[in-house]
């Protein structure tokens, strides 16, 4: 399977300028192409940031890529307005046209229902003020990792990379990214190999994700919710207040903006580390993993939105899923309409809904004392197993 391996790198002053130029050129080519495909309202053409511009009428995805590339890159370089496109490697410019094409395809498939999941909007103009900027080099761009362990990028030079872990195989492409906290990352696409499949084991686990605990496992393990954002809230408020007092466009405002971005980044990094560690442990220790299919979107609009977002369940579930594939484990989501807090995991008697403060209850049918969350994770495990057997032609899920 294909995976991304991301490393931080540290460009020097000249390289930072070259990268800024590259990001700028990529953005201009993207916007030029989008403007071609998305007719602008005449009245909006002169208005502020390009994002505020509104499209009018149906867009046209013509001319197609090769023509567009010839017109917006090759020929444009010969005009005085776009002459500077010649200062950067042409590969990322061609790649961004491909990205735009994919964005249109995703939007269309989403509209026609061919693509599942949340609605995908039409591509939007990129701005100089976007939070992250990126450019992708494919194999034919002549980038390489030097013998000295530096990353050599065409027209940028050799940059120092922090190789925090080993690349499992030779990467096919590299995306360079600058994030809102002004950090630089190189993200490689690599093909993982079959040798990573772990030796088979017997335990299977059901997971109940929640807010009082981040996760409760069917073996009774409870993983506390670290609440990273909540813990950083005071620091964040202070940084945001400082930012709001600075004059727009000033140097100090930019510094304050960076400070806010850094607090956010630290929270995101801590959360990601936590997700990685927990998901790796669970996948290593279990042959099959079942998780309740959460409706995170619905919860995200509720009163608990901030906490739900802070927990980051979907990112965690996604990690479980790809690590299961990678290490040869079984992963499945089970129906979220399971009445996991109303059903006894011992005898499957349905006991009626219980208010959230009820943490323990005794089954009226078989008199087992249940911890609410552990019981829920056991229901998830049982339902997951039943679904799996059912799919293999075995017994059907017990009537709940
Ligand atoms: Zn019971």
TrEMBL record:
Q: Which residues form the Cas12f1-like TNB domain?
A: 313-378
Q: Which domain of life is it from?
A: Bacteria
Domain Probable transposase IS891/IS1136/IS1341 intervals:
187-301
A Pfam family assignment: HTH_OrfB_IS605
Give the span(s) annotated as Disordered: 107-133
Q: Which GO terms describe its molecular function?
A: DNA binding; metal ion binding
| Metal-binding is among the record's keywords | yes
Q: Where is the Transposase putative helix-turn-helix domain?
A: 1-38
Q: Does the keyword Zinc apply?
A: yes
InterPro entries the UniProt entry points to: Cas12f1-like_TNB, RNA-guided_DNA_endo/Transpos, Transposase, Transposase_put_HTH
Q: Which UniProt keywords apply?
A: DNA recombination, DNA-binding, Metal-binding, Transposition, Zinc
* Alphabetical GO biological process terms: DNA recombination; transposition
Protein family according to the UniProt entry = In the N-terminal section; belongs to the transposase 2 family.
What protein does this entry describe?
Putative transposase
What taxonomic lineage is listed for the species of origin? Bacteria, Bacillati, Actinomycetota, Actinomycetes, Streptosporangiales
């Amino acid at each position: 399977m294909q995976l991304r391996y991301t490393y931080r790198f540290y460009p020097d002053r000249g390289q930072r300028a070259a990268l800024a130029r590259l990001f700028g050129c990529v953005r201009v080519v993207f916007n030029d192409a989008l403007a071609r495909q998305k007719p602008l309202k005449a009245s909006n053409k002169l208005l502020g940031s390009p994002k505020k511009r509104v499209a009018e009428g149906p867009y046209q995805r013509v001319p197609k890529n090769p023509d567009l590339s010839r017109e917006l890159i090759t020929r444009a370089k010969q005009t005085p307005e776009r002459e500077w496109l010649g200062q950067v490697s042409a590969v990322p410019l061609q790649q961004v046209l491909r990205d735009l094409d994919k964005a249109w395809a995703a939007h269309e498939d989403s509209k026609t229902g061919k693509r599942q999941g949340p609605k995908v909007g039409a591509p939007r103009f990129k701005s100089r003020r976007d939070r992250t900027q990126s450019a992708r080099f494919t194999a034919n761009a002549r980038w390489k990792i030097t013998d000295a362990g530096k990353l050599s990028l065409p027209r940028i030079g050799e940059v120092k990379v922090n190789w925090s872990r080993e690349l499992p195989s030779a990467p096919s492409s590299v995306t360079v990214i600058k994030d809102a906290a002004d950090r630089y990352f190189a993200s490689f696409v690599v093909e993982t190999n079959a040798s990573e499949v772990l030796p088979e084991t017997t335990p299977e686990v059901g997971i109940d994700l929640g807010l009082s605990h981040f996760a409760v496992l069917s073996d009774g393990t409870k993983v506390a919710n670290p609440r990273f954002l909540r813990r950083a809230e005071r620091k964040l408020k202070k940084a945001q207040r400082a930012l709001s007092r600075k004059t727009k466009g000033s140097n100090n405002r930019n510094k304050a903006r960076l400070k806010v971005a850094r607090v956010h980044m630290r929270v995101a990094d801590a959360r990601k580390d936590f997700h990685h560690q927990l998901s790796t442990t669970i996948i290593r220790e279990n042959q099959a993993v079942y998780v309740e299919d959460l409706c995170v979107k619905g919860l995200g609009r509720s009163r608990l939105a901030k906490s739900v977002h802070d927990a980051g369940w979907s990112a965690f579930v996604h990690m479980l899923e790809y690590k299961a594939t990678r290490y040869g484990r079984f992963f499945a989501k089970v129906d979220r309409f399971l009445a996991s807090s109303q059903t006894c995991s011992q005898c499957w008697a349905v006991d009626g809904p219980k208010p959230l403060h009820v943490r323990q209850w005794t089954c009226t049918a078989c008199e087992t004392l249940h911890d609410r969350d552990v019981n829920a994770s056991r229901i998830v495990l049982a339902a997951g197993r039943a679904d799996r057997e059912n799919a293999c032609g075995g017994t059907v899920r017990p009537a709940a």
